Amino acid sequence: MSTTDTGDQDPLEGSIFYQEFLIEKDEILRHKWIESEKAGYDIGFEKALIDWMLRHRSCWLDRRRKEREAREARRFRSS
Asked: What is the pTM of this model?
């Protein structure tokens, strides 16, 4: 089976890991925009990435984990 036989669907589309990556990337880009606005110039993705990872990533991951656990608990209670 060739790759054209599977249609246009991206195999990563359904991956939870890829979805989480995209969500995290969006957070970094949002941080880049905010910090660039404060600085008055584009700080660049690499600087934004490092700054976000050092200042915000651990809290962000904790919040994501708590949100996921709360969703799973609600789903379990409604079952």
From this structure: 0.75
CA–CA distance, 33 with 17 (Å, rounded to integer):
24
DSSP assignment letter at 3: G
Residues counted in the chain: 79
Tokens of 2: 């060739």
Please indicate, yes or no, if residue 2 is contained in any of the structural domains: no
Which residues in the chain land under pLDDT 50?
Answer: 1-4
Cα distances (Å, whole numbers) of residue 32 to 10, 48, 57, 64, 73: 27, 5, 14, 20, 34
Burial class of residue 64 in the structure, from the number of CB atoms within 10 Å of its CB (0-12 exposed, 13-18 middle, 19+ buried): middle
Is 28 a domain residue?
A: yes
**Contact by Cβ (8 Å): 45, 31:** no
Residue 29 lies in a domain: yes
